[in-house]
Amino acid sequence: MAEQDNRVSGYGLGNVDTIMSVDDVAREAEKLAAEGPSRSDLDALVDGDALVQIDNLVAGYGKMEILHNFDLRVGKGQSLCLIGPNGAGKSTILHSIYGFTNIMSGDIFVSGNNATKLSPNDKLKSAGVAYILQDNSVFPDMTVEENLLMGGYLMDSVEQAQTAADKVLEKYSRLRDRRDQRAGVLSGGERRLLEISRALIMNPEVLLVDEPSIGLEPRFIDMVFEILDDLQNTEGKTIIMVEQNAKKGLEFADLGYVLVSGQTAKAGFGADLLDDPDVGRLFLGG
């Protein structure tokens, strides 16, 4: 009688012998962080021309320090994916750029201007930075069009917001066909499209995208990444994202940072990090 194969696989990328515990991943990742990239390494990834630049950022919540002398560089029209274990500080980076954290020291520059102390409203209206939340932020009892108009709450007039909403609806037929329907009846993928579209009303230059694939079926995940690809490569948006599916995120992004304990352990082009054996072993399942 043939021996039964009782191996357990994870994500289809390795058998039980290659599965690491959360603690093992954290310990191995800490070793990587000991020799993180230099600032000159980060500059080289954007050819010395950063649209979004962070220098020596120390930030967190209340008195809790999450990011430790953190540096970041993203060029105009580039995309950056932040990956790493839970608690590494990935979302805190987005929160800090947008003004949701306590910044203890360091600087954040957008288009060469110091945006460190700007409020979230000023980040959106003056610095051209929009935040797409990971949580379901659609207003279910409002129509699709009304949700879009909410994205223009900082505009000088309702007419300006309506013009911007009409432009977005013209671009996305999925939303245009349902503009008068309650947003609560949309599928998960359509709600995510609405959240992204609402952020476009102010025509931002930089999109902060927190977990674009979270909670979505595979077919909708592909749709969302196609939308983000179009925004980057057709409209020239700069995208900084946190993505739980590290493989998907690195396949999409020009650049990748591996975060560990509030610091960058590795940085490189997305395609190169996909081929990095340490990144593969710790974060890609094999």
Concise synopsis of the structure shown:
This protein is of the alpha/beta class. It has helices spanning 22-33, 39-45, 90-98, 120-125, 144-150, 158-171, 173-176, 188-199, 218-233, 246-252, 270-274, 277-283; strands at 52-61, 64-74, 79-83, 102-110, 113-114, 129-132, 206-210, 238-242, 255-260, 263-269.
| Count of alpha/pi helices | 12
CATH architecture title: 3-Layer(aba) Sandwich
Number of strands: 10
User: Main beta sheet, described?
Assistant: 6 strands, mixed
Question: Can you characterise this structure?
Answer:
The chain has helices at residues 22-33, 39-45, 90-98, 120-125, 144-150, 158-171, 173-176, 188-199, 218-233, 246-252, 270-274, 277-283; strands at 52-61, 64-74, 79-83, 102-110, 113-114, 129-132, 206-210, 238-242, 255-260, 263-269. By secondary structure, it is of the alpha/beta class. The protein has a single domain (17-283), classed as P-loop containing nucleotide triphosphate hydrolases (Rossmann fold, 3-Layer(aba) Sandwich), CATH 3.40.50.300. The strands form two sheets. A six-stranded mixed sheet has the order 6-7-8-3-9-10, with helices on both faces. Strands 2-1-4-5 form a four-stranded antiparallel sheet. α5 (144-150) crosses α6. The two termini are 31 Å apart. The relative contact order is 0.18. Residues 1-17 have low confidence and may be disordered.
